[in-house]
Write a structure and sequence with these properties.
The termini are far apart. The protein is globular. The chain is built from 8 helices and 6 strands, in the order ααααββαββαββαα. It is α+β, with helices and mostly antiparallel strands and about 180 residues long.
Length: about 180
Amino acid sequence: VATGLLYGIQSDTSQLTKGCSPSEFDGARSLYEGVDEDRLDRVANPEVGAEVLEIKAAAITGREVRNAFAVSDVGTISNVDAVPQAADELLRLEGVTAVVVLGDADGQIHLSGRSRDDRVHMGKTLSAVVEDVPLGGAGGHARMGGGQLSIEHMNGLGPGDGLTREEFHERLFEAMSGEL
């Protein structure tokens, strides 16, 4: 239990480097004696499947960067968990301070955004981008956010004229720049 709790604290705070209060440090310190270090290492550094690595590679090679912001559309995927992992990787690129990665699965566009830019609240950014798309939803925190929207609704099913993929990418850049 101590191992799981410590991992939770570490993952929520980027290894106790972001968004920490004295409570996180105190909690980590009090849990440490009961931690199984080998198990913590296995949980914190799991093996990565080939598809996840391919999606990360596609996000990096297919990225569009404007100023310090990046958008990467990885296309059709079967593992939606790879989208936030790709966003985490893309944020590590030099000169990039906010990213959004999107991929399609089961008729939905899955969005994941990351920010280390104080000007870009990622939850609000993603929410603003999808608010005009029927049945679209997004949100999150200042540093990370996510969302989903129906491809059919984005293309114009229901009220509204819909958006092309290019227009959607443009909205992502506008929102990160504070223009939306």
